[in-house]
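Quiz preparation item.
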């Protein structure tokens, strides 16, 4: 298996990169996360994963080992193929994926295009223990964030705002800074609402 590649960046696109090494051009499928972090300089280094199927060999490139490991975990789930895993890595950062799986957040997983309710549940069931063992997912902060989020949502509902709209805004605020108290969350949400 090809584990990494170092070479000259020939072409960079939001879905792929072409890297030349010793006169051979490698086409690597990449996520938007990798694309945004891939430097524009000539010499680049990417971790890789080779997906071998009956009818094709597809090479995927990743900016760091964590992204590659999350990809490998995702494709180990029945119903999640390489393209859905890449879409998930394009939609969310590796930290967001780990937090969502670690906290059992079905809605976040299901928000990825191509993942339905059953597949989202399967991802959580299959990967929650692995994520909690392997990666640093702070269960205390997950529980605290969920408590803070729920309290802030309740307060906003009492103030007359719809739960659906409030939840989107609270989630957006928590993505930017997940260390906010309930009062700070409500204040920030009220400025946006």
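Solution:
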């Amino acid at each position: 298996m090809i584990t990494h590649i170092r070479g000259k960046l020939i072409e960079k696109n939001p879905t792929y990169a072409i890297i030349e090494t010793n006169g051979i051009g490698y086409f690597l499928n990449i996520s938007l996360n990798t694309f945004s972090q891939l430097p524009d300089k000539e010499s680049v280094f990417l971790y890789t994963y080779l997906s071998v199927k009956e009818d094709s060999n597809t090479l995927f490139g990743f900016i760091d080992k964590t992204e590659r490991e999350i990809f490998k975990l995702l494709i180990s789930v029945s119903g999640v193929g390489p393209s859905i895993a890449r879409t998930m890595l394009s939609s969310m950062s590796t930290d967001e994926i780990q937090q969502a799986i670690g906290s059992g957040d079905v809605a976040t997983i299901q928000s990825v295009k191509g993942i339905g309710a059953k597949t989202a549940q399967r991802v959580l069931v299959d990967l929650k223990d692995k994520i909690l063992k392997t990666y640093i997912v702070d269960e205390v902060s997950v529980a605290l964030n969920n408590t803070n989020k729920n309290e802030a949502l309740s307060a906003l509902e009492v103030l007359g705002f719809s739960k659906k709209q409030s939840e989107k805004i609270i989630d957006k605020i928590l993505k930017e800074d997940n260390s906010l108290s309930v009062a700070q969350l409500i204040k920030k949400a009220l400025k946006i609402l």
